[in-house]
Write a structure and sequence with these properties.
Blueprint: H1 2-31, E1 51-57, H2 64-72, E2 81-87, H3 94-99, E3 106-110, H4 117-124, E4 132-136, H5 147-152, E5 159-169, H6 179-196, E6 207-211, H7 225-235, E7 239-251, H8 256-276, H9 283-317, H10 322-342, H11 352-375, H12 393-400
Parallel strand pairs: 1-2, 1-4, 2-3, 5-7
Antiparallel strand pairs: 4-6, 5-6
Amino acid sequence: MMQDLLGYSLIALPGGLFGYALVGYPLLLRLVPRSGIAPSTWGDPPVWPRLSILVPAYNEEESIAGTLESLLALDYPADRREIIVMSDASSDRTDEIVRSFSSRGVRLVRMTERRGKTAAENHTVPSVTGEIVVNTDATIRIPPASLKPLIRVFQDPTIGAASGRDVSVGSVTGEGNASEAGYVGYEMKIRALETRLGGIIGASGCFYAIRRELIDPRFPEALSRDFAAPLRARKLGYRTVSVDEAVCIVPRTRALNSEYHRKVRTMLRGLNTLWHMRSLLNPFRYGRFAWMLMSHKVSRWLGFLTLPLAGVGVLLLAPHHPWAAAVALLGGLVLLGGWAAIRWPSRVPMPRLLTSVGYALGAAAAGFIAWMGFFRGTSLATWEPTRRARAVPERHEAVGAT
């Protein structure tokens, strides 16, 4: 009897956390009445604010030229923006390629040694000229019509930062993890619901904008600035919104193994960032924002930490309950399939079912490993950019038109 109670309890803990974070929280967001401060539809401002577009890069010789061409083609007054590539001591032709764009208004800021993305931003921000800083990535594409919607919302003085809408796409060669698209789409729907209630609690590192005066140039180098941006904005009395029309094309990673390592880095930096700004979890001071932060991030992350307990619970029940024995057997097959998926060659098409299993298992493993790194005090100041597949060009135009 006690063994059964323990087994069910161990299963219920991560099940309840994931159930609330992934299903209960979105449902509550739909049920809560729309906030009176939801973002309005803005027209063009009389004068577009000056922008500084920052592009971190480390050994991006294959993609940086295309990225800069796409940024130069954005629908925004050329005299109202500057483009800065922050090279994290690149050792390939990245710097040479960026310098070839200098006559077109692109500036190179080179770090003399590798210190990571946040360190490069800390070094660069004091010299930017823009009222608003736009952060993007060297391996993504922003459709020409996506920038202005992101900037229009800053006419609302209560908005301190704004995030674009990521769209995960495949590649020319068919590389990439198809299950990533479903997860990204789910996350964007959550942000849209949070925006409906006044603001989001995490921005897209691929494409977001923030008022320059809200950026802390002394921000700890091992933390995640894109996650911290909405947190800092809220702490200073502003809110952050997601802008559906500000589309960002994000090519999927080449292999599940790459996605796994990316998730470990992202969540570990996220855990360290949240701990650094943990005062925002105080509901007596930050009210609804604290609830959203606890629900969207903390509950989900705790689910990853406690997930192995569910396996222990199933094993405790298996000797006396046939359904638990069947679940244990199925779990073993899932683990085997996940291992095969993570080890799958990046150039060989993967069956969709195996892709889904591998993606889910990789995410769970990455979450648990990130927690172990957090408890050990591990920090990841040195930035390792995600190597993504090349996106299909025609899909850019199609998505940007939505």
